[in-house]
Predict the 3D structure of the following.
Amino acid sequence: MKRIEMAGQHLTEAEGVAGVLAASWEIFELIGALAAACAEQAADLYPAFMFARSAAAAGRNAIAFAPSAPAIDAATAEGLKFPADDVSEVADALAGLASALSARLQATAQLAADNGDRTACQNAARDADRIGELLAGSR
Amino acid sequence: MPAVLGDFLAAANEHLEAAVVVGDGQLPQLPEVVRDLHRLVAVMWHHLDDLAPCDEVGASNWDGLHVWERAVIDAGVAMRAAVACLGRGAAGSGDPASSAASWRARHLAAAAASLAAGRDLLHTHHAPDPDGLIRGRSEWAPVITSLSVTRALAGQVTRWSWQLAPFTAWLAGSTMSYALPRTPDQAVSAAICDSLVSASQWLQVAAAAVRPAIEADPVQTADIELLGAVPAASVPQRLRPGPAGESVAELCDGITVSATRLRAAMRGSAERARWSPAVTSGGWQWMAQAAAVTSHLAELALRSLAARAGQLTGLPVTAAHLDSAGAGLAGMRAAWQRVDRM
């Protein structure tokens, strides 16, 4: 949960298009890694986590196409283990993070001067929305 | 609920039953009635023609035909002759009056329209492939050409033929009464009368043609139920689970919709083959994840069934069998997950 809160904090503190893109990449990586770890822990949430993982990968790839995306450490969330928290709580926290990410990406899309950045933010926002739909209300 | 063939057959039957009621002392408005009767019998013939595996020439050299296949061909030949006779009768009886059609004509027209709509529904299950060959495009396609549906539909169409034969004879009898005040030409009236008499006889022949089949292999209740249940071949809209809990009926509906959509997706899979330029690495990953999720859900279903089977006796499968199948699916899920993470 701490990693989720930290990622949310990074998003809040991000400045400029490049900063938001970097924070978004980090969040999509985190969601993908946590979703993969959590999928094994709750049989009834397995499909939601698996599809959330897929949407996270799509969102991360959308960010990678943005011209302003900074060079990012590919190993951001590698080796992440299953968190000790309740799986439903993790799902809710990830849904909240995805929702905040979508709002920030949509706002950034309106500010971006570059068409490529704008499109990347819009596409990534859609993937964040999808994650929110999949993981919200899982309890 | 999607439309099913039974809806159209029931509507056609209701209108046809209403149309053939005689004895009310009213003279039929001959041009309208004969024209709409011609349309109705033509649609009935098309239904039989669709069921026939070959024409009468082919059938004469084909010893292996099932008794119902032969009956359908024979009834179709007779029905086609009835259509030709009614066509001559309709042409001879002149243009319909400009006033509103009679109730009898309206019922015949409505019966023809319902039967035509039913035939359109059946045709949604087949389509030509790129080589022009007609292929099934739904899971119902083999049902439509099955013996069961052939029996039920041919039985129904020829039962209507049997009802229309005396009605057509009655029309023939009323020809002179109807024509006398309007056309003094007795030769024309006689020709129309002859056409209708012939049509009536051919309708009887069509009905009689299926009797050997009915005796040898009677129409079953299950055949009629199956015929009535044929839906249009359309892919239903995605049914997303609601935020609230679903009832058992809603779950069953959702499963049916998902299964139908999956089967439709499978039929289009040839176009999405691995050499297709539409396929991407992202698409492959998505497919692997979907396969992992599907394996997982199937495993859960099998484990539940295994638990229930353990409480029952006399089942053809044991809890151990179901558990073993569930374990197999768990292995599949793990394999798909490895593919997903490549």
